[in-house]
Amino acid sequence: MNILVLNCGSSSVKYKLMEMPQANVLAQGVVEKLGLEDSFLRFKLPNGDKVVLEKYMPEHTVAIDFVLQTLTSEQYGCIKSLKEIDAVGHRLVHGGDKFSKSVVITDEVVAKVTECIDLAPLHNPPSLKGIAAVTELMPEVPQVGVFDTSFQQTMPEHAYMYALPYEYYEKYGVRRYGFHGTSHRYVSQRACEFLGLDFKKTRIITAHIGNGASISAIKNGECIDTSLGLTPTEGLIMGTRCGDVDPGALVFIGEKEKMSYADLSNMINKKSGVLGISGVSSDMREIEAAIAAGNERAKLALEMYDYRIKKYVGALAATMGGVDVIVFTGGVGENQTTTREYVCRDMEYMGIQLDNELNAKVRGEECLLSTADSKVKVVVIPTDEEKMIALDTLELIKK
């Protein structure tokens, strides 16, 4: 069975065609600069060669149609016709508290996702356009929505509520939702498979860290707390997002700088984080190069980034009465050895003992990094959100 996984952004469409249940990747690529004259489709051939096809794609239906044409083309295709696509799985960012699991897409589901646009005004509209495009181009093909927020819907009320006037929760749904849920779900389950543990009887901390970053506490198969909140700005320090900050500081800066709400939002989402502290970049490779060149602000930015992760590991372990497994994933979690070493340093009191020599060698591969006598297992598990989406899609359409 072939499942097409789509991740529609405001100016991009990422896709992966997978043969299930084997999870063989038949094709993958991305449309970039959607809506601009110089938009293009970029993908890799089975032999590793990169291909870029330039075409003006003004909106999502044209982009997805071009992807489908390419998948079935004589020159670049991997299938002969669209009839070989059995289902489409969509990454949907925000389902509010309306969705606690993945769902087959119906008119009712579309209406509920539309109701959540206020919670994710930059993300939900492109996803809805992607659903509409597939409906138009392949009306008979079933579609499934997999939500970034659904995995965290098991959080208890005392963990997801904010200490703001309760009326704002009732009127606007202001609460912690969390994001990256598909990744947290995949790597926590995969870590238990890798280690031979029972997912339903294990306390896990998953650190999805990269340009965007979040950390979750998963106890006996359910997420009980997470760092991201109503929006993707709370919690850990990120590439350009501030993470936890005294809201009073934002009021203070806003008044001093005569900022509008839009200006304030732009600052905390696009000008803060590692970029804001270092003044160099949001890319950790450039930060490490700047540190090597003696840049003190870059050094401070990385230490703040690492420290915040370490702090959350301790906090989330407390919520579960301890931890059995710590999972590192995401671009930084899978590849930045110094961050993993910093987070696990001086954590022996929690039962964490890292094999530093092994850790220094591991990049982008599944690996047990803790020592044989470490009570807590520390692992790297590369995330695969597309596989998780494809698995959910497969399960639902079989039903």
Question: How are the SSEs ordered, and which strands pair?
Answer:
Elements lengths: L1 E7 L4 E7 L4 E9 L7 E5 L5 E5 L5 H12 L15 E6 L10 E2 L2 H9 L8 H14 L5 E5 L9 H4 L6 H6 L8 H15 L7 E7 L3 E7 L2 E5 L20 H11 L3 H10 L2 H6 L5 H9 L3 H25 L4 E5 H6 L1 H8 L11 H4 L7 E2 L8 E4 L4 H14 L1
Observed structural traits:
399 residues, Nucleotidyltransferase, domain 5, 2 domains, 8-stranded mixed sheet, 6-stranded mixed sheet, globular
Structure overview:
- Pathway: Metabolic intermediate biosynthesis; acetyl-CoA biosynthesis; acetyl-CoA from acetate: step 1/2.
- This is Acetate kinase.
- Its cofactor is Mg(2+); Mn(2+).
- It comes from Porphyromonas gingivicanis.
- Homodimer.
- The chain has 399 residues and is α/β, with parallel strands linked by helices.
- It folds into 2 domains: 2-150, ATPase, nucleotide binding domain (Nucleotidyltransferase, domain 5), CATH 3.30.420; 181-385, Nucleotidyltransferase, domain 5 (2-Layer Sandwich).
- The protein is built from 15 helices and 14 strands.
- The protein has helices spanning 60-71, 107-115, 124-137, 157-160, 167-172, 181-195, 247-257, 261-270, 273-278, 284-292, 296-320, 330-335, 337-344, 356-359, 385-398; strands spanning 2-8, 13-19, 24-32, 40-44, 50-54, 87-92, 103-104, 143-147, 203-209, 213-219, 222-226, 325-329, 367-368, 377-380.
- Strands 5-4-3-2-1-6-8-7 form an 8-stranded mixed beta sheet, sandwiched between helices. It has a 6-stranded mixed beta sheet with strand order 11-10-9-12-14-13, sandwiched between helices.
- A hairpin with a 3-residue loop joins β9 (203-209) and β10 (213-219).
- The radius of gyration is 21 Å and the shape is globular.
- It starts with a strand and ends with a helix.
- 43% of the residues are buried.
- The model has no long low-confidence stretch (mean pLDDT 96).
